[in-house]
Every structure is written in C-alpha cells, then in structure tokens.
Amino acid sequence: MRFDDVSQAIGNTPLVGLPRLSPDGYRIYLKLEGHNPTGSVKDRVAKYLIEQAERAGELVPGQRVLEPTSGNTGIALAAVCKVKGYPLTCVMPENTSEERRQLLTMFGVELVFSPASEGSNGSVRLARELAAADPALFMPFQYGNPANALAHYETTAPEILADLPEVTAFVAGLGTGGTVTGVGRRLKRHDPDIKVFAAEPEYGDLVYGLRNLDEGYVPEVLDQSVLDSRIKVDSLKALQYTRELAEVEGIFAGVSTGASLAVAVRVCKRLPAGSTVVALSPDGGWKYLSTGAYAPGDVREIATRISGTLWA
C-alpha cells in the first residue's frame, strides 16, 4: 500500500483470532490497534481531532495545540501535528512510562506534568487551566470532542464489520469513552442485537489508563446508552491475561488489552454458544517495557511492584 504521508496510513488494522484463549464453543478476536503508525488506537482519534478542527476553522496554520494525555493520544497527536505543521504541548501525569516521555520529546513536544496522585483527571484539570489562561492555544480535548467517537464510528467499526459481519459482541476498555461509543453506535446500527461491553477498573484500582466512572469524572464523549454493561476488572487479572496472551497466542500487547480480554472471556458466559466476540487491543507492549510488567517472576509480585504506574 502506498500513502502520501503517515496520517494516511492510519487504520485497517488486523483482526486476529484467539483459538487457544477462547472458551469452548466461542470465538474471540482481537483488533490489534498497535499496528497503527505510532502504535496505538489513538492514531485514529488524533487524525480526526485535527482534521475536523481544520475543516471547522477552529485550528489555523501554525497554532499551538494543547492536550491532556497519559501518553498514547499525545504521541499520536505529535505525529499528526508534525506532518501538518502544528506545535504541540501535552499535559500528562508525572508517573507515565519513560518510553512515552522519550517518544514525545523525540517529536519535539513540550511536556507539562500534573501530579501523579491525581491520575489522568489531574491532567485534564491542569490543561483546562492552561487553555483558559491562553486563548491562543487550541485544545481538541479528546474527552469531550465528538470527533473522538466519530473516528471509531467511521473507521474502526466498519473495519470490524467488513472482516467479521457475524460479530455478536464488542468489548473495549473504558478510557475516554470514544471507542465504546463510536464502535458501539455503528455496530448496533448494523444489528441492534450486538452487545457492547466496557471493561472498567475496580473502584480505586489503577488498571492502566482505564477509568472507573464512580470516581468522579465522566467523559463528555461517552454515551452510556450504547453500553449493555460496564464490567469490572482488577489490575492483577488484566496483567495475567496480558502475559498469557503473549505466552499462549504470541501477541505482545499493552496491559489494558488484558483488561478487555478478561472481560471478553467473562461475557462469553452471557452469550449463546457459538457467539463471536471482538475485543479491542489499544496498543502493543513496547511502550511499557521499562515498567517491568513483562519481566519473569510471580505475576502477583509484579502487579504489586508496578501498581503506581500509569499505563494508557
């Protein structure tokens, strides 16, 4: 395939079956978003955030873009902004992985850090303060921008339906809410009986960039009416499934993928025999190696050791 620039290479990611991890009588497929140019599902979102703003006249040539992020959206925006000529400032928690900091610095992004104790909510708070203080900045704000969900409605979901029109259920981690909202709307338009499940952390548990809606902030882009259920998953289970995915299926994914896979396996019990479930893998594991999540050893000890790391 040939493209004029990297932004055109976004999407059309593989949908890969998991024959060894699928429960008997069911089929689970993983949508591998780590195959996007900067390695995550957020490439789709970044492209839509910037291009929709350009079309609406909200973003002018050379204007500085500001965005709160815990990593992947910032990296995706960095690539898109680089080819389009926009300087970028990212506000992110100070406990993000070293790989993400280095990638953003490589792209020439200005980094502003929020307190680790506030998680991604702290980055949202600080970014809003900076945007309010400087009207010259443009903040796409993935948490409240309809372009976030639209990216998945127009690209991710149609790809799933083209590859697997018989899909029975869809599972994705609950982060900004854009993925479950956009994909869910499009899948239910195709077939209202398709179930949509969100993998959500246990209250007070850091499951690698996912968010529990009961902890305060509900992203504006999230349409909860699309969800058939929010299903809790803890950080240990997410890590266990991430490591098992590599050991059994040969797929090296980020730890939020493990959360979605854990929920996908669980929801099979709610579905008729023969059902087909698609789980979304937001990214590969490359940006997390420094955290020790994939190191040899007891998974419980590793989960405890890395519990303060922010992942998505």
Automatic annotation (TrEMBL):
One annotated GO molecular function: cysteine synthase activity
The Tryptophan synthase beta chain-like PALP domain, residue ranges: 6-283
Keyword list, A-Z: Amino-acid biosynthesis, Cysteine biosynthesis, Pyridoxal phosphate, Transferase
Amino acids binding pyridoxal 5'-phosphate: N72, G175, T176, G177, G178, T179, S256
Domain of life: Bacteria
Biological processes, Gene Ontology terms: cysteine biosynthetic process from serine
Listed InterPro entries: Cys_synth (IPR005856), Cys_Synth/Cystath_Beta-Synth (IPR050214), P-phosphate_BS (IPR001216), TrpB-like_PALP (IPR001926), TrpB-like_PALP_sf (IPR036052)
Gene3D superfamilies in the record: 3.40.50.1100
CDD domains reported in the protein's UniProt record: CBS_like
Essential cofactor(s): pyridoxal 5'-phosphate
PTM sites of type N6-(pyridoxal phosphate)lysine: K42
Short name of one Pfam family: PALP
Xref: NCBIfam families: cysKM (TIGR01136)
Assigned protein family: Belongs to the cysteine synthase/cystathionine beta-synthase family.
Name this protein carries in UniProt: Cysteine synthase
Species of provenance: Egicoccus halophilus
Organism lineage string: Bacteria, Bacillati, Actinomycetota, Nitriliruptoria, Egicoccales
